[in-house]
């Protein structure tokens, strides 16, 4: 799902959000009912649309829901805004009220492209004055549509494609400028309790795939095999690799087995080039030296895997930070795409995981909110490298 564009469907209750998802998917994947408030939590549907490919449609609860439960539904729906590449705002009866206008302002503030869909055009066609207000006042595209009679679906698909942009599937390559055709890259992968049995973890798979795409050569080793592999370089039996990439937790042991002049970095650090903001994390990591007793650290983990006794985010990284700083630090972990209960300025540092399971936009949205609050941001790999004393070495290959 990480490489698929996310499209959020927003609007009031019974505006036709679920019906639109059924129209776009060509099947009844979302429950449709005349009862207001049928959709509760945001519901994600992975579908493939001709000319767009695989995308994720997010069906949200009505923004006009009321009551204590309704307010929680609305809050969850608003949180989706930061996660999407495109928002579709549905309204009916030519009525643009407070809810719609507030949503459009939120889209603007969070820099989310959006378009409007006037639904139920079979009953009430779009008023040209409303169309003019939208196109001139908000600079947004608008389409008159009927989910019951979707005769202009191709026009809608064209507008979605236009507003998603030319390359919604692509992110900046992790190895751009680092690896060329026929170069050798050594990947040092752990096989601990966090590595699924019989499989590699996603960042390792993503790097291997990019090496293949660049027509380069990947050599996958465990840390215990490094010394003998590099000894054969000394005897001329092998060429020196252009780069060694390792799991962050192996930085200390990997460094001991390779020459000092050998370029070295980590999977998570590479992900900060393609999923986050490398420069922001680079500077934010240096603030670790300024942490004090009682500081709160927020760890943002974007997947929701089952935690283990040696979990990186919940156990290893907090332990490394405490030992390195010698301070009594307090940690909070947020998994998935949930938001923290405390205001972000409550924290002295935010540390984001590599983000292999989510989109570039979703990572940047989290970083942006922390920076707005004046909180420095780091990355799992960079923070681990810093506490291991090899931060400069692990980031140097990416500084060009």
Care to describe what's here?
By secondary structure, the protein is α/β, with parallel strands linked by helices. The protein has 3 domains: 159 residues, Rossmann fold (3-Layer(aba) Sandwich); 86 residues, 3-Layer(aba) Sandwich (Rossmann fold); 117 residues, Rossmann fold, CATH 3.40.50.11410. About 4% of the residues have low confidence. The longest helix has 14 residues. It has a 6-stranded mixed sheet with strand order 2-3-1-4-5-6, with helices on both faces.
Topology, number of strands: 14
Largest sheet, if any?
6 strands, mixed
The amount of beta strand, in percent, is: 15-25%
Task: Please state the average pLDDT score.
Answer: 86
Number of domains: 3
The name CATH uses for the topology of the largest domain is Rossmann fold
Write the layout of secondary structure elements.
Blueprint: E1 6-11, H1 17-25, E2 43-49, E3 53-59, H2 67-80, E4 86-92, H3 98-109, E5 114-119, H4 128-137, E6 141-144, H5 153-164, E7 184-188, H6 202-213, E8 217-221, H7 226-234, E9 243-246, H8 251-256, E10 264-266, H9 267-274, H10 278-285, E11 296-301, H11 312-325, E12 330-335, E13 349-352, H12 360-372, E14 377-379, H13 380-387, H14 391-395
Parallel strand pairs: 1-3, 1-4, 4-5, 5-6, 7-8, 7-9, 9-10, 11-12, 11-13, 13-14
Antiparallel strand pairs: 2-3
Brief summary:
The protein is of the alpha/beta class and 400 residues long.
Descriptive tags:
single chain; 400 residues; alpha/beta; Rossmann fold; 3 domains; 6-stranded mixed sheet; 4-stranded parallel sheet; 14 helices; 14 strands; 35% helix; 18% strand; elongated
């Amino acid at each position: 799902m990480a490489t698929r564009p996310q499209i959020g469907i927003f609007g009031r209750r019974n505006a036709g959000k679920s019906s639109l998802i059924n129209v776009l998917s060509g099947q009844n994947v979302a429950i449709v009912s005349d009862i207001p408030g049928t959709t509760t939590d945001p519901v994600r549907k992975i579908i493939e649309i001709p000319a767009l490919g695989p995308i994720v449609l997010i069906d949200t609860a009505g923004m006009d829901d009321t009551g204590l439960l309704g307010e929680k539904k609305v809050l969850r729906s608003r949180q989706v805004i930061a996660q999407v590449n495109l928002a579709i705002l549905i309204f009916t009866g030519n009525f643009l009220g407070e809810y719609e206008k507030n949503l459009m302002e939120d889209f603007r503030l969070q820099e989310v492209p959006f378009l409007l869909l006037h639904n139920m055009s079979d009953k009430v066609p779009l008023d040209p004055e409303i169309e003019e207000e939208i196109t001139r006042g908000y600079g947004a595209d608008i389409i008159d549509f009927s989910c019951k009679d979707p005769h202009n679906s191709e026009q809608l698909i064209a507008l979605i494609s236009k507003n998603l942009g030319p390359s919604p599937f692509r992110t900046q390559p992790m190895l751009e400028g680092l690896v060329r055709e026929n170069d050798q890259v050594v990947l040092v992968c752990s096989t601990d309790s966090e590595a699924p049995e019989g499989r590699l973890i996603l960042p390792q798979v993503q790097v291997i795939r990019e090496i293949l795409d660049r027509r380069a050569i990947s050599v996958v080793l465990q840390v215990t095999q490094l010394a003998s592999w590099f000894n054969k370089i000394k005897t001329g039996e092998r060429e020196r690799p252009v780069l060694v990439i390792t799991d962050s937790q192996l930085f200390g042991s990997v460094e001991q087995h390779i020459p000092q002049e050998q370029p070295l970095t980590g999977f998570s650090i590479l992900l900060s080039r393609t999923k986050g903001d490398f420069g922001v994390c680079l500077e934010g990591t240096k603030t670790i030296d300024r942490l004090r007793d009682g500081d709160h650290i927020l760890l943002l983990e974007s997947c929701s895997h089952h935690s283990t006794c040696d979990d990186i985010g919940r156990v290893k990284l907090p332990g490394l930070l405490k030992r390195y700083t010698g301070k009594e630090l307090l940690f909070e972990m947020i998994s998935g795409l949930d938001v923290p209960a405390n205001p972000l300025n409550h924290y002295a540092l935010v540390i984001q995981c590599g983000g292999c399971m989510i989109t570039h936009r979703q990572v940047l949205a989290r970083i942006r909110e922390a920076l707005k609050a004046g909180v420095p941001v780091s990355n799992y790999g960079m923070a681990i490298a810093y506490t291991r004393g090899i931060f400069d070495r692990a980031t140097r290959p990416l500084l060009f």
